Each structure stands twice: as C-alpha cells, then as structure tokens.
Amino acid sequence: NAGVTQTPKFQVLKTGQSMTLQCAQDMNHEYMSWYRQDPGMGLRLIHYSVGAGITDQGEVPNGYNVSRSTTEDFPLRLLSAAPSQTSVYFCASRADRGNSKNIQYFGAGTRLSVL
Amino acid sequence: DQQVKQNSPSLSVQEGRISILNCDYTNSMFDYFLWYKKYPAEGPTFLISISSIKDKNEDGRFTVFLNKSAKHLSLHIVPSQPGDSAVYFCAASQIYNQGGKLIFGQGTELSVKP
Fold first, then answer.
1. How far is CA B61 from the centre of its chain?
2. In chain B, where do the E strands start and end?
3. pLDDT single digits (tens) A82-96
4. What is the DSSP letter of B52?
5. How far apart are CA A53 and CA A48, in angstroms?
6. Interval A67-84 mean pLDDT
7. Pairing of strands B108-113, B86-93
8. pLDDT tens across B27-40, in order?
9. CA geometry: angle at A51 spanning A46 and A52, to 5°?
10. What's the pLDDT score for residue A1?
11. Pick among A43, A74, A87 to test the B interface (most B CBs inside 10 A)
C-alpha cells in the first residue's frame, strides 16, 4: 500500500515557468489537500478538495491552481513561478468516514526552488 | 493572525526524561487536535489526537492533554528516546465546519540526547 505519492521529489524552476506537482493516493480517500512548509511558518494550506470535482481555497491559494478529476489524483499547478513559491510542498489525504476519518496522511514532499 | 502557536522553536532533553511540547490556540471553535512528527526529508506522520470532549488521550509513551479553558494543549513523551528527535507540529481543526481543514503551529524541534 503506497499511501500518498508525490512527484517529483525535487524541482528547480526559473521565474515565470509553469509546472505541475503530482499527488496520488491509493487509499480511496475523499479529502485531499496541498500544504507548503516554510521556515518558522509551519504548514500552510494552499487548496483542498472534499471529493472529485470539488475544490476550495486554503490560507495561501494565490499563484496556485488545482483540479480533482478523479478520487486518486490531486495535481497542484504553478502557472507562473515566482521566487516566493520556493518551498517544500506536501500533499495529504483523509478518509471522511471510519475510525481514522479525522487524520490526514502526508506524502514525502516536493522541494521546489524558483530562481 | 496565527490561530495555532507553538512558542518554543526547540527543546532539548536527556534520554529517559520527560519531553513536554506545548501548543496554544485562539479559535474556540476548534474541536479536534492532532500532533504530527516530522523527520528531515520526510512528510509529517500522525502521532496522536484528541477530541475537544476529552481532556487526555494516551498512546504508549505519548499523552496529549487538552485544557479548553486555557486554549492549550501539550504532548508528553515519557520516557524520551533518541529516536524521538524530530520536529513536532500541533494542528487544530473544526470537524464539521470548513471541511475539517488543519491549521498547523510553527513546529518545535525536539532533540533527545543519549
């Protein structure tokens, strides 16, 4: 059972480039989310989805787009990368029923540098 | 406005002693709290949680205490082991509102010395 898988693990971009961070989960979880971790700031929620076809904004959504066409996948798109988006990005998923329904499970992260 | 705060960026304890990590929150609507542990170059892993209807939850060496009147929770690790050295994040959510979004504190880096 792979859990939450993020690709790539590392990425370097130039300012203005676009890219997509991939996230896939094989636990049939309804809820998925994206966070960024910056020094001294903890993890901040970017976007989240409560099911296929439904997305909503978190605390820091500007500069990022998401879509949820399937239960398994929740890609995060940077349309025009900026140095302020240099960060470590984590994807997480959560079941919405059952004993562990309030616990989010995280991927290993994508470390992104924007030059 | 930081709704969840961990005011100690770091903590160092001796192996075998107790580690106490603290977390404060400002939003009285939070009704579920979690602690995550994070090693370098890995994603956060769930450690222990507590519902607002309880004031204590235990799991082996880990105990979380919740003081709702003070809007404060703490994580106790007894006895501490070198393998516990990691960054610990507390997180809060409203289960039935706002999609159960997690709001994280800044993290506390725990170092357990042999």
1. 14
2. 4-5, 10-14, 19-25, 32-38, 45-51, 56-59, 62-67, 72-77, 86-93, 103-104, 108-113
3. 999 999 999 999 887
4. T
5. 11
6. 96
7. antiparallel
8. 999 999 999 999 99
9. 100
10. 61
11. A43
Closest listed residue to residue B105, CA positions, set B78, B72, B77: B72
User: pLDDT, tens digit, for every residue of B76-94?
Assistant: 999 999 999 999 999 999 8
For chain B, what is the radius of gyration of the CA atoms? 14
SS3 B83: helix
A17 token code pair = 């480039």
Q: How many residues does chain A have?
A: 115
Question: How far, in Å, CA of A30 to CA of A105, rounded?
Answer: 12
The closest alpha carbon to A10, from A83, A88, A91, A63, belongs to A88
> 3-state SS of chain A?
CCCEEEECCEEEECCCCCEEEEEEECCCCCEEEEEEEECCCEEEEEEEEEECCEEEECCCCCCEEECCCCCCECCEEECCCCHHHCEEEEEEEECCCCCCCCCCEECCCEEEEEC
Asked if B4's CB is within 8 angstroms of A43's CB, the reply is no
d(CA B75, nearest CA chain A) in Å: 17
In terms of DSSP bridges, do strands B72-77 and B62-67 run parallel, antiparallel, or are they unpaired? antiparallel
Phi, psi of B65 (to 5 degrees): -115, 140
CB distance B47 to B103 below 8 Å: no
What gap in Å lies between CA B11 and CA B9, rounded to an integer? 7
Residues of B with CB under 8 A from a CB of A: 4, 6, 9, 32, 34, 36, 41-46, 49, 89, 91, 93, 95, 99-107
